[in-house]
Design brief:
The complex is a heterodimer of chains A (135) and B (122). Chain A has 135 residues and is mainly alpha-helical. Chain A has helices at 2-26, 35-67, 75-101, 107-134. In chain A, helix 1 packs antiparallel against helix 4, helix 2 (35-67) packs antiparallel against helix 3 and helix 3 (75-101) packs antiparallel against helix 4. Chain B contains 1 helix and 8 strands; from the N terminus they run H-E-E-E-E-E-E-E-E. In chain B, 21% of the residues are buried. In chain B, the strands form 2 sheets. Chain B has a 5-stranded mixed beta sheet with strand order 2-8-7-4-5, with no helix packed on it. Chain B has a 3-stranded antiparallel beta sheet with strand order 1-3-6, with no helix packed on it. The chains are: A mainly alpha (135), B mainly beta (122).
Chain lengths: 135, 122
């Protein structure tokens, strides 16, 4: 049962990772340059970052539930986790800003925001690999 | 009378049910209790600070464990996936040091099986 719970949390986390990374890159596709189309992508990215935060907490909560302790992480893994959490917070903040003020931004500003979101998603994904194998 | 359920759908459900049974099956009751003794150094042993000191262990992770972590004074310093082997400790500062090996699960969570020795580094 414990493995099933971890697997389900991992499943959700993996799909969240795909969304936070792929959706910002998709924003540069010619078919996605229209504001309405990009708003849909922004909603997806916002939801995906929240899913990442929730499923990340769920990993720790699962360990706490079954063993009463959090996973033991090495210094390198802890650094990778901090990078991932920072990306999640920055990604959530940036996409919120995109919703709140994006209507007044220039096309260049939109481009910078989506590039930053793509970079945050890719960095978090890279951090996940380090966290997985240096824990 | 033709079945209302397409064969491919039934096969997918059968595979899913089999997978669920495997995942939900309780651990083998006959499986041995997990253990992880540190065979060297012995508790209270003196270690030379200038030497390359090795920690020798063997582990049976049991059904819930996966691998082991090595700790010096509570800090994780290594991950070991072999069931029997040794780990070369980095230079230890003189004084009393605690060396621990803990069995952890696939999520790196200690499952409560561990062995620790206290050594004197001189």
């Amino acid at each position: 049962m414990e493995n099933l719970v971890y697997a389900l949390v991992q499943l959700v986390h993996n799909f969240g990772a795909v969304a936070v990374t792929a959706a910002p890159f998709a924003a540069f596709s010619p078919a996605r340059l229209a504001p309405e189309s990009r708003r849909g992508l922004a909603r997806l990215v916002a939801a995906a970052w929240l899913v990442q935060i929730a499923s990340g907490i769920a990993f720790g909560a699962t360990s706490l539930h079954y063993y009463g302790v959090l996973p033991d992480l090495s210094r390198v893994a802890r650094a990778a986790l901090i990078v991932k959490v920072s990306c999640a917070l920055a990604g959530t903040a940036l996409v919120t800003l995109l919703f709140a003020r994006g209507a007044r931004w220039t096309e260049a500003a939109h481009g910078r925001a989506w590039r930053a979101l793509a970079a945050l998603g890719a960095t978090a994904l890279a951090g996940a690999a380090v966290l997985r194998w240096f824990s | 009378m033709p079945s209302l359920i397409p064969p491919s759908f039934a096969r997918a459900w059968a595979c899913g049910a089999a997978l669920a049974l495997v995942l939900l099956a309780p651990p083998d009751a006959a499986a041995a209790e997990p253990y992880v003794p540190i065979t060297s150094p012995a508790d209270g042993a003196p270690l030379d600070a200038m030497d390359q000191n090795r920690l020798v262990y063997e582990v049976d992770p049991g059904p819930r464990g996966d691998h082991v972590h090595v700790y010096v004074d509570g800090d994780e310093v290594g991950i070991l996936r072999q069931l029997k082997g040794s780990y070369t400790l980095e230079t230890l500062a003189p004084g009393s040091r605690e060396l621990c090996v803990k069995v952890v699960n696939k999520a790196h969570t200690p499952i409560g099986v561990q062995d620790c020795v206290q050594v004197r580094v001189e």
